[in-house]
Amino acid sequence: MIVPTVKQTVTLAEEDIAGRLWLGSSLYPSPDLMAEAITAASPGFVTVALRRQTARNIEDNGHWALLKETTSRTGARLLPNTAGCFTAREAILMATLARELFATSWIKLEVMGDDYTLQPDPFELLEAARELVSQGFKVLPYCTEDLVLCQRLLDAGCVGIMPWGAPIGSGCGLQNPEGLKRLRQRLPEAFMVIDAGLGKPSQAMQAMELGFDAVLLNTAVAQAEQPVAMASAFAAAVSGGRMAYEAGLMTERPQASPSTPLLGLPFWHQTSS
Amino acid sequence: MKICLNGEWLQVSVLRLDELLQQQGFAAAAGNFVVAVDQRLIHQGQYHELALVDGMQVDILGAMTGG
Fold first, then answer.
1. What local confidence, expressed as pLDDT, does residue B30 receive?
2. What ipTM was assigned to the predicted interfaces of this complex?
3. Domain-embedded: residue A5
4. What is the largest CA-CA distance in chain A?
5. Residue A153 C-alpha, separation from nearest chain B C-alpha, in angstroms
6. Is the distance from CB of A200 to CB of A171 less than 8 angstroms?
7. Span B2-62: which CATH code?
8. What is the pLDDT of residues B20-59, one digit of tens each?
9. A75: which of A16, A102, A150, B58 lies 20 to 30 Å off by Cα?
10. Which distant-in-sequence residues (6+ apart) come within 8 Å of A152 by Cβ?
C-alpha cells in the first residue's frame, strides 16, 4: 500500500525548519498544557517575547524553563517577537535585546499601526526591516497582504513575509482569500507564512492549499477547550493542506461537469443550448 | 542619585551597573535577562564598566511567552 506523505521539514534562509505549523506560547491555561500542545504540534517555530521583570520574576520563571526544555526536545526553534512596538526605533531595540537574550538572529518583526485592529504600520515596518537586515537579523515581518508592501519587504532582504489572515486573536480565518491568492501568484518564490487570525484547522488547511509555506497561530490552540487535541488537529490540517497543494488542486469552474460518462446511456436527452 | 529602573524612579547609592544588578538581586539570574540603558543594549561584559548617571533609564528584561 502506498502511504501518502508530505515532507514536514522546510528550508528557510538555508536552515532546516522542523515543521510548517508554527505556534505561539502565550495564553495557555498552564505551562504544562503549553508544553504538551507544543509536543503534539511539533512546530517549526515557537514564538516568544521579552518584558521588564524583577529578579524574582526571572528566578521563578517556570514557563520559560519548560519552554526551553520542550523546544529543545521537539526540535522547534525560538522565534522572538517585537510585539507591542509602534515605531521602527522601538522594534529595533526590542529585536536587539531579543537576539542577546534568546541567542538567535530570527525575529518576528511586529510594528503596529493601530491598537484596535493591531494592523501593522507598513512604513515603520519597512524601515525597521531594512535596519535589522543590515544588522544580520533573519527578519520575518508580520504584514498585511498588500502586494507592494510585501515586495518591498522582500527587496529589503527579509527571509520571508507573514501576511495576516485576519486581526490577531480574532479567529476569523482568511478574510481576503482572493488577495492572498494573488499575493501567492505574484510572488511565487517568496517564503510566505499566514500569521494571525486563524481560528479553525480548516482555515489553516485553506492557507496551505493556497500554497502558503507555513502558518503561525496561537490563540486557536491555547484557548481551545482541549489545547493538546487542537494542536494535533492543526498539525493534521497543515499537513493535509500542504499535501493537497503539492498534489495539485483542480481548477474551479462555474458550470457543472459530469464525472460519469454520458455516452452509452440507454436513452437520449435533448440538451439545452 | 536617582535612576529609573523598569519604569520606577529609585534613589541609589551604588555607582556602577553591576553593583545595581547585585543590589537588586539579579546576580543569581545571570544569563536569563538582558539590560538596556537609555534604550541601548548593554552586553553582560560591560556591566562592570558602566557608570550610573543621575536620571539614567535602566530596563531589565527577561523571557516570557509570546504569540
1. 87
2. 0.96
3. no
4. 85
5. 21
6. yes
7. 3.10.20.30
8. 999 999 988 989 999 999 999 999 999 999 999 999 999 9
9. A150
10. A126
